[in-house]
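DM from R.C. (forwarded with permission)

"hey, sorry to bug you on a friday — could you get me a structure for this? deadline for the figure draft is monday and I only need the backbone to look sensible"
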Amino acid sequence: MGRGSLVVKEVMKGKPGVKARLLLPFTICFSSRIAVINMEIPVADRISSLPYNVLEQILRPLPLRDVIRTSILSREWRYKWVEVCSELVFDANVDNRLLKTIIYQVLLIHQGPLRKFSLLARNSGLFPDIAHWILFLSKKNVQEFLLRCPCDSNFHLPSHLFKFHDLRKLELGGCKFYPPPDFKAFTNLVTLNLRYVTFEPTCFQTLVSSSPYLECVTLDCCTPFDNFSVDAPALKFFKISGSTKSICFENTPLLEEIIMGPISIEISKSFAVPKPQVTLHNINQLNFKFVYCNVIQQAAYALHLISNCPNLERLRLMFHMCNSSKHVVECFIHHLRLQTKPLSALNQLKRVDVKLMLFSKLEMEFVQYVLLSATALEIICIVTCVKFSQRGMKMMEKMKQSSPNVEFIYKEVDYITFMNSEKE
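My reply, with the result:
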């Protein structure tokens, strides 16, 4: 029995009480034969006559494989997906040879607009072909381009990528990002996500500052910066992890949320607090991942950044597991006590989420200093590992005494969950 017969069985199985003659008329092609189903009572094919935009809304949520399978419905539907499908996502774990064949065939017969192209390249076997595909896509007005390669692959992006003039979202992983000399910016870019991407820091900063509509930037384990000055007037979300020595938000009047960390401990020892740091009036959420309290410079930067966010409403802190010498503890406490007044910027703070690893004196001094400044605080949620439950409960009681009007939420989880879960 041919493949088409299997499809018919699935249709009939979905409607067990409906006889075959009530099904919509369609043809199924398999091998060299055409099976004509239910021509007894013609019924108007209302689906095929739907407007283009309606068909697109119907097919868009489906995986590309299922969209292409609609070609077996009838002669009229055989190439309809070619015109309607504007998003191509190739993320299946299949053999390179098969994946190449599929992508080449899809690109060859595709017609109409192509808004999104996404490819998960699991190994370097696809790299020569990716360059050809990017050349083809540079003529298709692509608005979203996502290419994820292995983190250690260092695939050198071809120059054709920088001709994507309509690009609104760019997501790259495991690539070398070196624009040609005549490239200025992606003038329509809104979202930029880079993971394990190598670039020239100065050129990257120029790209960011020259993208007038750029709203979201994520940098994960990319090329280290010595001094990163963020100049992006439309920026609303900024996330960075990896290695850097200094970050200054120079021109970000619309910035609403910052996520920092983890920052490499080797680099963070030389981390510098930039001065002056502009006031970030629109920031309502700050998220520090892996704060190294035994590195005075990084803890000082965290406090410095907090102090420049007068409308901050939610603060998230995740401390790094570290044991510190008595000298480091004394230096950190001395630094906090040098702050002659509480952080006035925390007058609007409503919630604090903290992951405390050891409930060490360093961590508690940091948290208590923040709590002392947050006069409007309503909730503090502390998540810790069951390994430290006894110590954690003692510390919680102390904090409750100093902040009687604050609701304390205390959670204990196993170590694996603790390391992998995101804060609520």
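R.C.: lifesaver. Confidence is low (pLDDT under 50) at residues 1-41, 265-271.
me: no worries. The CA atoms of residues 218 and 408 lie 32 Å apart.
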